């Protein structure tokens, strides 16, 4: 069972690599077209949406990097390989996006104070193309969305951005028929807030993982209860859980047992259960009841 899971992890990227590369290529082309149209027609709605779509490109690239880095073998210096770099790049990406959101918000506020005429039809057409691009990209990850958290994240991100593009299209239609140019910076502000909201989560999670905090999708008490559920386990202490990368987690724990006779079987069973809880690397130190253990031993 464990061998089958390992086999899937190393061969799944073959077709997912193609999906990510197609998604990255399509979205880069769209970002360039949308940013160009936004600059030419002076549309902050298009520019802010282009910035948001650029974050999609970065997130897709990071997910692709995560797959590639997971295949690099550990070395004597980097005993976990380069998996941790995926977390560091995510942190850098979050900081850059927050700075970009600051510029977008400043420009939108200025446009609200001094509205300028823009081509609503162009906004609608470009946003319509965005709906198609984001929809196709989401479709590329639809089949594998339940097999990997990175793929699921990419799918949900692109599906949400399809809805954002629908909002931009609606603003273009409204401008075309009503001439309410102020709707453009309003939509720009809404999109900036969406970027800020998603980026804030990315920043929070990246900082948490960078500081070896317990990943958000793992409950420490649940893990401790899982370990204690085995009748051979008397007590669990010095339990540490952290992320090796954006997709792999590790655990160390001191396990108090009544006897060492079944030690190997116990460790095998606990590791198997932890794999189902998204903890791929587990290390245990077995102890007997009453054995002295310093509080600062780990």
Compact summary:
The protein has helices at 2-11, 13-41, 44-70, 85-113, 120-142, 149-178, 183-210, 220-228, 263-275, and strands at residues 233-243, 249-257, 281-287.
Features:
mainly alpha, Alpha-Beta Plaits, 2 domains, single chain, 298 residues, Alpha-lytic protease prodomain-like, 66% helix, three-stranded mixed sheet, disordered N terminus, 9 helices, 3 strands
Written account of the structure:
The chain has helices at about 1-10, 15-40, 45-70, 85-115, 120-140, 150-180, 185-210, 220-230, 265-275, and strands at about 235-245, 250-255, 280-285. The chain has two domains: about 1-210, Up-down Bundle (Alpha-lytic protease prodomain-like), CATH 1.20.1510; about 220-285, Alpha-Beta Plaits (2-Layer Sandwich). About 35% of the residues are buried. Helix 2 runs antiparallel to helix 5 (about 120-140) and helix 3 packs antiparallel against helix 4. The longest helix is centred in the middle third of the chain and has 30 residues, at about 150-180. The radius of gyration is 24 Å and the shape is elongated. With about 300 residues, it is mainly alpha-helical. A three-stranded mixed beta sheet has the order 1-2-3, covered by helices on one side. Residues about 1-10 have low confidence and may be disordered. It is built from nine helices and three strands.
> How many individual domains?
2
Structural class: mainly alpha
Q: If helices are DSSP runs of H or I spanning 4 or more residues, what is the number of helices?
A: 9
What is the global morphology?
elongated
Percent of residues in beta strands?
A: 5-15%
Mean pLDDT, to the nearest integer, reads: 80
CATH homolog superfamily of the largest domain? Cation efflux protein transmembrane domain
CATH architecture of the largest domain: Up-down Bundle
- The count of DSSP E runs of length 2 or more, i.e. the number of strands, is 3
Low-confidence segments: 1-12
Q: What is the CATH class of the largest domain?
A: Mainly Alpha
Helix content: 55-70%
Major sheet summary line? 3 strands, mixed
Radius of gyration: 24 Å
Strand order, biggest sheet?
1-2-3
End-to-end Cα distance, whole Å, is 31 Å
CATH-defined topology of the largest domain? Alpha-lytic protease prodomain-like
């Amino acid at each position: 069972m464990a061998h089958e899971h390992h086999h899937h992890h190393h061969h799944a990227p073959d077709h997912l690599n193609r999906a990510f590369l197609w998604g990255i290529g399509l979205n880069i082309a769209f970002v360039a077209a949308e940013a160009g149209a936004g600059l030419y027609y002076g549309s902050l709605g298009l520019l802010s949406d282009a910035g948001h779509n650029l974050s999609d490109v970065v997130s897709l690239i990071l997910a692709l990097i995560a797959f590639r880095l997971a295949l690099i073998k550990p070395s004597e210096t980097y005993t976990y390989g380069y998996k941790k770099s995926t977390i560091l790049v995510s942190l850098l990406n979050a900081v850059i996006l927050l700075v970009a959101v600051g510029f977008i918000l400043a420009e939108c506020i200025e446009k609200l104070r001094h509205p300028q005429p823009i081509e609503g039809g162009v906004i609608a057409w470009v946003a319509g193309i965005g709906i198609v691009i984001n929809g196709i990209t989401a479709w590329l990850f639809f089949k594998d969305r339940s097999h990997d958290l990175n793929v699921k994240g990419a799918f949900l991100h692109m599906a949400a951005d399809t809805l954002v593009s629908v909002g931009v299209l609606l603003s273009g239609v409204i401008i075309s028929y009503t001439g309410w140019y102020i709707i453009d910076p309003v939509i720009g502000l809404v999109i900036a807030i969406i970027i800020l909201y998603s980026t804030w989560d990315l920043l929070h999670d990246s900082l948490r993982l960078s500081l070896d905090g317990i990943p958000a999708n793992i409950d420490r008490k649940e893990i401790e209860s899982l370990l204690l559920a085995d009748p051979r386990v008397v007590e669990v202490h010095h339990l540490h859980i952290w992320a090796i990368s954006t997709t792999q987690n590790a655990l160390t724990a001191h396990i108090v047992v009544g006897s060492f006779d079944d030690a190997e079987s116990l460790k095998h069973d606990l590791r198997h259960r932890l794999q189902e809880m998204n903890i791929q690397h587990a290390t245990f130190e077995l102890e007997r009841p009453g054995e002295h253990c310093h509080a600062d031993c780990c």
